[in-house]
Structure formats: C-alpha cells, structure tokens
Amino acid sequence: MIDLHSHILPGVDDGALDIADSVAMGGQAQDDGIELVCATPHIRADHDVRIGELAGRVELLNRELARAGVTVRVTTGGEVAESAVDGMTRDELSAVSLGGGGTWILLEPAPGPLGGAFVAAVERLAGRGHRALVAHPERHFDDGSMAALADATARHGALVQVTAAALADSGPDWAPVQLARRGLLHVLASDSHSARFGRPLRLSDGVRRLREIEEMSPYVDWVVNDAPRAIVAGDPVAPPFAPA
After folding, report:
1. Which residues contact 2 (CB under 8 A, 6 or more apart)?
2. What are 57-68's pLDDT values in tens digits?
C-alpha cells in the first residue's frame, strides 16, 4: 500500500517531532504493510516550510530509515492549502506534487463547507496542468460540500482522499461512510502526524471498514493500490465508479 498523506518529515510543521519520531512512524507503516509514504508537510501561511529543502530532507530521512532497518521509503509531496495555490510558482507546485510526479497536488480545503471558491481553486489548478487530490473532506461534510466535490471530480478531474482512521471509526451515517457510499472516496490515507500522539501511520483499519461498505467493496484494491500508484507516477486516473 501507499500512504499519500502524512506529516512524517521531522521538525518542519506540526508533524513528527524529531528523527526518532519519523523512524517510529516508518515502523508503524512497515508493520501495516505500507511500502511508500508521501511526506506532505503543510504548505500554508502558518508554517514556514521551505519547499526547496524538501527533497533533501526526504533523502536524509530515507537514509535514517534504512539505517534503522525500516524498509518503508518516503517520497516527496505537500499538503497545499487552498489559500496558498495562487501564490505558488510552477516549480513550487511541481516540487510538492505527490511522489514528485508533477501532476497531483494534495489540496487542503479552506475551513468551513466546500463551495464555489473551493471548486474554483480546483479549476485553477487544472488550468495550470495539475489535478487535485482533496484532503480529508469529511471535515467539511454537508450537502453543499457533497455537490462541490461531485462538481470538482466530474468537471476538473479531482479525486477525494478520506482519512483511514476516520472511516474505521465511522457509523453508517457519518461523513466518511457517506462519502464512500456516494462514490466520493478514491484514496485512503493516514494523515498521521506522529508516532507519539494522534493517528498512527496505518491504513489497514480503514481498508477493513471500506470492505464492509457494499457500494465500495468491489473497488477496494483500486482505492488502496491502483489509484495511489498512478498518482505518485503522475499518471491520469479514471475512477471505475461515478459519484452518486
């Protein structure tokens, strides 16, 4: 499996506290059967993340993981705030694309319900040659947000990332399950920030829950394997299901 959303890089945002924490997160991923982790630090005004340093930081972390005997590998990325998109250069967007594939941007919606401004940001990314993977929309759940997500996926090729832990803990009427049932779940990711607190770097609990959802059970392998591999390669992704 591939985790497309994690804050595994140490000391750059609100994620891993130090290199030991990052290595412990890598151990969690290895134990869960995850092979590749995208490091996606926050790209937004309240975090001083220096995009030009990210590739070197990922290389250093991979060396530490190998030294510790952890087989998981980390690749580049970023969690780009909706408010930050317009101020980023072409090279900056490419540098924080998931897996360095140059195409897919993990887009963090602005606080509150999703609407026209969100769809416009997705459209502007598309106009610059990028596709959006929308981060954790279960935090923005209402009927208007559902309509905005459906619009962004249908018209601008966006995909939707739901947090694995949120899905694993969801009742039948909760937002992550409703997103899955409505065909608005394309990727599961951990959004893990540390091995010492919060969500672990683990996907399997969410995968098990996804297999229990009738509408999505035929597509679990696509969600956890086919789609993430295409995204890190920068390839087009055509979901085998449409929004309900």
Report:
1. 34, 35, 36, 37, 38, 224, 225, 228, 229, 232
2. 999 999 999 999
Which residues lie closer than 8 Å to 54 by C-beta, 6 or more apart? 9, 12, 39, 41, 76, 78, 95, 96
HEC sequence for the chain: CEEEEECCCCCCCCCCCCHHHHHHHHHHHHHCCCCEEEECCEECCCCCCCHHHHHHHHHHHHHHHHHCCCCCEEECCCEEEHHHHHHCCHHHHHHCCHHHCCCEEEEECCCCCCCHHHHHHHHHHHHCCCEEEEECHHHHCCHHHHHHHHHHHHHHCCEEEEEHHHHHCCCCCCHHHHHHHCCCCCEEECCECCCCCCCCCCCHHHHHHHHCCCCCHHHHHHHHHHHHHHHHHCCCCCCCCCCC
Residue 196: CB atoms within 10 Å: 12
- The stretches in the chain having pLDDT less than 70 are none
The pTM score is 0.97
Cα 239 to Cα 159: distance, rounded to the nearest angstrom? 9
Give the pLDDT of residue 142: 85
Q: Which residues pair with 144 in a beta bridge?
A: none
Per the structure block, which two tokens stand in for 40?
Answer: 């996606």
State how far the Cα of 13 lies from the Cα of 31, in Å rounded to an integer.
25
CATH architecture classification, 2-233: Alpha-Beta Barrel (3.20)
Tokens of 109: 């919606």
